[in-house]
Amino acid sequence: MAVSPFKFLQEVRSETAKVTWPTRRETTITTIMVFVMVAVASVFFFAADQIIRVLITFLLGIH
C-alpha cells in the first residue's frame, strides 16, 4: 500500500509533536554520567591490563 508523500509528511509532523525532548539539565547530567562511566571503565581496564601483564611476565619468566 503506497502512501502519498504529503500524507507521509503529515504523519511525521504529527509523530514529531508527540516527542518529549530532554531538558538542558537532564542532558547535562546524562553527559556527565557518560564521562564518569568512561573514566571508571578506563581505570578498570588499565588496572586489569597491568595485572594481566604482571602475571604473564611472571609465568613466562620474562624480566
TrEMBL record:
Gene3D superfamilies: Preprotein translocase secy subunit. GO terms for molecular function: protein transmembrane transporter activity. InterPro entries: SecE_bac, SecE_sf, Translocase_SecE/Sec61-g. The keyword DNA repair does not apply. Its main location: membrane. This is Protein translocase subunit SecE. Belongs to the SecE/SEC61-gamma family. The chain crosses the membrane at residues 29-48. Component of the Sec protein translocase complex. Heterotrimer consisting of SecY, SecE and SecG subunits. The heterotrimers can form oligomers, although 1 heterotrimer is thought to be able to translocate proteins. Interacts with the ribosome. Interacts with SecDF, and other proteins may be involved. Interacts with SecA. It is found in: Cell membrane; Membrane. It comes from the Bacteria. GO terms for cellular component: plasma membrane. It is a single-pass membrane protein. Keywords: Cell membrane, Membrane, Protein transport, Translocation, Transmembrane, Transmembrane helix, Transport. GO terms for biological process: intracellular protein transmembrane transport; protein secretion; protein targeting; protein transport by the Sec complex. HAMAP family: SecE.
